[in-house]
Amino acid sequence: MSHNAHLLAAAALLATIKLGTTPLDHERVDGEAFLITNGSPIPFWDMARAVWAAAGSTKGTEHVNFSCMTRYFNIDKARTRLGYVPLVSLDEGIKITVKHFEEERAREGEKKSQ
User: Where is the signal peptide (predicted)?
Assistant: First the structure.
C-alpha cells in the first residue's frame, strides 16, 4: 500500500523514537531532505517545459541561452528510507500540480478584489 511521503516520514520518525536507538547514517530520516517524484527519469528542462505546457504557457525556455548540464532527480533515498512508492504518473502529477497552483492563484485574485 502506498502513502503520501510526509506520512511515511512521520511514521519513520515515530518508529525511530520507539526503538530508543540511533539509526545508522544511511538509515536516518531526521534532518534529511527527500526528493519525491514518480520515479520516471526526465531531464530538468523537459520537466520545466512539460509544466509550462500544462499551464498553457507558450514562452518555454526561449530566455535560457545555454545549459551545460543534464540533471535527473532520484527518489532512491525516499524508496529505501521511507518505503515510498509513487502514487501517480509524471503527466498526472504535472496536471494535478498545475491545477492546484491555478486554483490558488484564482483564490488569491478573489481575495484581492474583495
Answer: 1-20
- pTM exceeding the 0.70 threshold for the entire prediction: no
- Give 55-64 pLDDT, tens digit per residue: 888 776 566 6
Are 40 and 89 contacting, i.e. CB atoms less than 8 angstroms apart?
A: yes
Closest CA to 93 of 54, 60, 41: 54
Residue 65 near residue 108, CB atoms below 8 Å: no
The DSSP 8-state label assigned to residue 25 in this structure reads G
Domain ranges, ordered by start, for the chain: 5-113
DSSP element (H, E) containing 50: helix 44-54
Residues 50-53: contacts with CB under 8 Å, at least 24 apart:
50/90, 50/91, 50/94, 51/94, 51/97, 51/98
